[in-house]
Amino acid sequence: MKKALSLLLALCLVLALAACGASAPKTPLLVMGNSDVPVGQYTQKILDYYGLEEEALAGAGLITYGSNVKEVTTQVKEGSVNAGVIYCTDAFSAGLTVVDNATAEMCGQVIYPAAVLKTSQHPAQAQAFLDYLSSPEAMAVFEAVGFSPVGETIPAAEAAETEPVELIVFAAASMTETLTQIQAMYQAAHPNVTLVYNFDSSGTLKTQIQEGAACDLFISAGQKQMNQLDITASADVNTEGLDFVLEGSRLNLLENKVVLVVPDGNPGKISSFDALAEALKNAK
What is the CATH number of domain 110-256? Predict the structure, then answer.
């Protein structure tokens, strides 16, 4: 009897909503990173490029968020949104369909800086690993998923005889797959070195470093987060005068690309950034 009554009430609710012209909530058009992570900051620039107001779109339920690029990628993969803005490397790893590439005019270049930290317990070994990341062997791994080298590659150094050390590397979440592959390669050639990774959004990693977390090497997905830790950066960015970057160790390691991706079947029929901007404008 209770089950029949519940079904009857549910049917009445559906009929009432239909009579009022109500409909199920629409799927958000776009998922983007939070404002404290580089992929979110690049997306904000793209929205500004098209004259779109992020706050108004989010308030209307047209935009949803992820705390890092992996969360953004997952929402697109699961089809809970019509499109997402991520890096080409994450699109490759997740097997997502890329429908458009952001131009430098839209959001600037996506450069990944890296640096040994002054608080490192093993600065020489950290520098050696950073040098290895610029070698042809490591770059082949990066390039296979869509990264591009920024500078010239350098030959990998011979393994030095050292006491066993544990290197703690903080790296942007978009580097998870590549650095995990490189970890096995490096430790095979340098058996005395154990690499311990912490993958997260660059903003979260920067905060952890600032709060005293042990870290030997930091690789950010954006210049802003590295600049906020670098005493040589502009005071407009490094507003707290933080001094964590070891002098002479910082370099621009890789370039990534910002892309627009859609779920399988492209249910929202989003074919480009232009089409996305038009859809967002018309949906408000």
Answer: 3.40.190
Please report, for residues 116, 165, 195, 227, the alpha-carbon distance to residue 126 in angstroms, rounded to integers and kept in the order given.
6, 10, 10, 19
List the structure tokens of 170: 């903080």
Domain covering 25-102+259-283 in this structure, CATH number: 3.40.190.10
- Token pair listed for 248: 């002479």
The tens digit of pLDDT for each residue in 8-55 reads 444 443 344 444 444 434 678 999 999 989 999 999 999 999 999 999
What are the structure tokens assigned to 17, written together? 């909503």
- Rounded Cα distance, 201 and 203, in Å: 5
- For the chain, domain boundaries: 25-102+259-283, 110-256
- Do β-strands 110-116 and 251-256 pair in parallel, antiparallel, or remain unpaired? antiparallel
Q: Please give the C-alpha separations between residue 136 and each of 64, 143, 151, 156, in angstroms, as whole numbers.
A: 39, 10, 12, 8
pLDDT digits (tens, 9 = 90+) for 195-231: 999 999 999 999 999 999 999 999 999 999 999 999 9
- Domains 25-102+259-283 and 110-256 in one fold: yes
Supply the pTM of this predicted model: 0.79
Q: Which amino acid is at 127?
A: Q
Nearby residues of 222 by Cβ (< 8 Å), 6 or more positions away? 38, 41, 42, 110, 111, 112, 202
